[in-house]
User: Fold these one by one.
Assistant:
Number 1:
Amino acid sequence: MNTASLGPQRIVCLTEETTEWLYLLGQEHRIVGISGYTVRPRRARDEKPKVSAFLNAKIDKILALQPDCVFGFSDLQADIAAQLIRAGVQVTVFNQRSVEEILTMLYQVAAMVGCAEQGLAWIEGTRARLDGIRSAVQALQAAGRRRPRVFFEEWDEPHISAIRWVSELMDIAGGDDVFPELARMPLGKDRIIADGADIVGRNPDIVVGSWCGKKFRPERVAARAGWQDVNAVKHGQLFEIKSADILQPGPAALTDGVAQMHRIVTQWMVQHG
């Protein structure tokens, strides 16, 4: 059976992860509109019309593209989805929050565009790479190296800690999330740390910032009141991972995001652990 004719042919992607995934699958010809925040792959910005931000979208522009499916992410895009559904558009909104849920979403999208086998092969390869990272961390621990305590800051004012998939990737990469109890909270407002002293009290060895597209400023972190005695500040362990690489719940986080986290953590384990 020719699977090329199956599934949606004119797709609008309201967030970056489905755009990147369709490109990786060689199905970019199906995409007719993307999010204005898309930076992966870079060529998508030049090739596809930008029709949405994150919390809002140009509904008229989307409808003019005559999509037969729109992919969205989470309850935060529920209002956009509702408007499109009322206009008669098929909408699929994913709500992946963990590594396993990301992999499940990727398989579902691949199956929808007739690329189930290709998608599964990528997923199995990704699982193998993640297992390889785990093994490398275990080898360092077996050699007597300690895992660092890591504070991942998703936003700076107020402080917001790591979402679940980031916390899980941190664990795979060899770091221990200093706020593991907050990671399962799906909404940013439920991961707010109102008192910076709570972060200081947990004394992270590493601080990783990914300020939702805003440039991370390590000098500002180091200058925070009471932070001078935090291990991460004392030893200059303040790093940025770009939001597009780690806060995108799709291919980026499972490849470049976790790889960057692993390099940061491994360097600390070798030098300080």
Number 2:
Amino acid sequence: MVRIDRVVTRGGDAGETSLGDGARVGKDTARIEAIGAVDEANAALGVLRCLVAGDAATDAMLSRLQNDLFDVGADLAVPGAGEERLRVTDAPVARLETEIAAMNSGLVPLASFVLPGGTPAAAQAHVARTLLRRAERRVAVLRAEGINPAVLRLLNRASDHLFVLSRELNARAGGDVLWVPGANG
């Protein structure tokens, strides 16, 4: 279990931070960039959860996803660790695929690309989706270091999940905001 006794440690004042195995690394390393990108996406999910307050099923999905992203951060924070450390598996990936299929089954098939927007919650789902795509790109940079491939699958599926969720949220309010090619030209 995690225990945090102090928040202010001054350990990062010189531009370094500690990984989960105790190693000190620069805050500008690719690994810390990846962990930070996952954290940003998770914060955006927190805002989305505020916007769907009262929708228990959607909030529960987002809560599970936030926990998954903390697992991703924990996995990334301990490079090359053995099985004694928390490692992301494909179980949350399968859960996300099931949730995607359930949400998508009630949606009209797309005939155009979707513009980020619509309801505030759908727009925030798009913000979180794009932040997850950035996190995925940052994690992909770490492939040469031998990262857990389930992490990339989870981030990829999570952004798909948020795309479909944004469509579902907009469907409840009248439908998607669609791209009209050349509309202003």
Number 3:
Amino acid sequence: MRVFITGGTGLIGSAVVAELLANGHSVLGLARSDASVQALEKAGAEAVRGELTSLDVLRASAAQCDGVIHLAFGNDFSSPEAVARSLEEEGNALRVLGEALVDSGRPLVTVAGTPWATGRPSTEEDPQPTEGPVGQRGVSVAGVLALASRGVRSSAVRMPRTVHNNGDGGFAGLLTQIARRSGVAGYPGDGTQRWPAVHALDAAVLFRLALEKAPAGTAWHAVADEGDAVLDIATVIGRRLGLEVKQVPEENFGPIGPIFATDQPSSSVYTQKTLNWTPEHPSLLADLENLQP
């Protein structure tokens, strides 16, 4: 397939691009800077200049490809307004990408987050939340999956709170960044809350499998670690950075503080069995050992 991808130079996206190319696909990647163009071309992909708000570019690029993978997202979590703006941009982009594929039978794979369930790990059957700090993403993802009734082989790969590679990425990466700035390896809540995780290279395989064979209107869980305790995560970060480990108010983590403090383990048993996906790369706690002081 010729695949159009947004977010193809990020932590997850660069791994997805490499996975697609290694398995015989060609890639057209959205690039918002000269550096992104160079990164995509160095990887062996083509590049088209534009941003997630460049709706005409998204429409034309999707129309000329055999499938689409959407990964781009504004990573500004500095305020509720910034998060809302990123969610609105993503929703508009997904609407345009979906419209370009209507009645084509072509795949559209979007990124989502694993939901949470009370007292148990969430599964692929649990609905995406449509309320709360990132509820708008759930609304956008539901719109993508609904395209199954309009001739689009749409699917969602739900990512855990931490997608990592060499000790960086996701919520654990944010904890590390905050620890470096504050001088304390802090954690919200009592530290027993669990975050699921996956290595970026394992997640990339699942995106390819979803592109190639996921039925229309389906959701999948890219989860390798069902749930690592936040205290355990902070403890490794503190040890690697030589910092004190202690509880801090969730308000210290900005608008996503309440999410940080939530117990949210997740399962991928169904995904692994159905799509024959087997995570093979290091766990989060093992990967955090790569952190440099």
Number 4:
Amino acid sequence: MNRTVIIDVETTGLSVKRGGRVIEVGAVEVVGNSIVAEFDTLIDTGAEISYGAYLVHGISQEMLCGKPQPEEVWKRFLEFAGDAQMVAHNAPFDSSFVRHEVALLGDTIPNSWHCTVRLARRCLPHLANHKLDTVYRYLFGSLPESVQRHRALDDARLAARIWVKLMELN
């Protein structure tokens, strides 16, 4: 069984080196060509959300009140991910945040990481850019009406469809 977990995170800022934290994680488990499970939660880290990050994802401090703490979320996420290969759109960004969050808890995530941006650049070099929206629209037409961009689970779902399609083309 070939398990892949496609993940997306929303953060308080652009860099873990500048104190950025994950405040939302969304992930989908793909087996074969189908999404078979999902993981999604906001996270109350207590860290302040930069205005720039808020403008991207729209997650406010108020939305995080009463949400699970990082210890609970990342423990559950590691169980969800297991030994699956990890995939993200711009994997260096997401993996740096995930590894940082897990390291804060004294743990590691040894899973291999793959990047749909890199794969799209290789398979679709003619595109003007390789942003999630651009690649998705090229492969599937329009975005689903219900999708809420720059929210973790919806972005993970989009990236999962891209991953499956590009793996077929590759």
